[in-house]
Design a protein that fits this description.
mainly alpha; MetI-like fold; MetI-like; two-stranded antiparallel sheet
Length: 293
């Protein structure tokens, strides 16, 4: 009887360990997602009774010019964040060299990763200040007029994305450093025997072994671009005139400041659909890679 109980316990023990996390995930994530979609079909100020309006919020969203500004800014974030994986790989190759003093250089590149996004936003807000910021001092040293990047509708989004790229590149660098440290010495040795050197070695031997790491860096960069919020809130609060707003910040602004939780939920649902489409594609690609491997 004891042996039967032990076998049964051994079978169910993995599920018992998974159960608390699954319950938490189902309650906090899945239930919240379903509730958000439900709220998006209502007119609700967050306190009173909800009024069913069907697709009214989505119809208003399609006709809202600010929605397209936010969507365009999200696409700008997404396009520029695609620079993070190749830049991270380049830095990883640089700091992975056995050169004296490289540990100090590696620490300097690693530093933005341990800083909070709010801190990075505050630092770059000072750097961009047209009166006494670091950028202004450099431009004035060359006799130029300091630009007000965060006050210009045409440059504000690019300036914030540049600030967001700093820690993102550092994160990708760490991922690629881990990948470089796990390279197969046998494959590298075989490549050297076949005469592979420099770029040929990197292209045909090193890079194929970093495929999975590259996909992880790509996924993290895409998700980071789509959920961009905190640096916008700290640096511009969506200004000037809503020109730096993204979908996540517009959702927050409509829900918290305008008391339009139904409209904010509709924006959140659109953002969720975009992220779900990417995650589905990502999982399919990873599954295909594992089958080939």
């Amino acid at each position: 009887m004891t042996s039967v109980w032990r076998r049964q316990l051994r079978r169910i023990s993995p599920f018992l360990f998974i159960l608390p996390g699954a319950l938490l995930f189902g309650t906090v994530i899945l239930l919240a997602c379903v509730e958000t979609v439900y709220i998006s079909f209502h007119d609700w100020d967050g306190m009173g009774a909800m009024r069913w309006i069907g697709f009214g919020n989505y119809a208003e969203l399609i006709a809202d010019p600010q929605f397209y500004v936010s969507l365009k800014n999200n696409l700008i974030w997404l396009a520029l964040f695609m620079l993070a994986p190749p830049l991270g790989l380049a830095l990883a190759l640089l700091v992975n060299q056995q050169i004296a003093g490289m540990r100090i250089v590696k620490s300097l590149f690693f530093m933005p990763l341990v800083l909070a996004s709010v801190t990075v936003g505050l630092v770059f807000g000072w750097v961009y200040d047209p009166n006494f910021g670091l950028l202004a001092l450099i431009v004035q040293a060359f006799g130029g007029e300091p630009p007000a990047l965060l006050s210009d509708e045409n440059t504000v989004t690019y300036a914030i994305v540049l600030a967001g790229l700093w820690p993102q590149v550092a994160f990708c660098m760490v991922l690629f450093l881990a990948g470089l440290n796990n390279l197969s010495s046998d494959l590298i040795g075989a490549g050297r025997v076949d005469g592979a050197r420099g770029l040929a070695m990197f292209r045909h031997v090193v890079l194929p072994q970093l495929t999975q790491v590259s996909f992880i860096a790509l996924a993290v960069s895409v998700i980071g671009a789509l959920r961009s919020f905190d640096m916008i809130a700290v640096m511009t609060a969506g200004g000037p005139f809503g020109s730096s707003t993204v979908l996540a910040y517009q959702m927050y602004e409509q829900s918290i400041f305008s008391y339009r939780f139904g409209y904010g939920a509709a924006i959140a649902t659109v953002l969720f659909v975009i992220m779900a489409a990417f995650i589905t594609w990502y999982l399919l690609m990873m599954n295909r890679m594992e089958r080939r491997g």
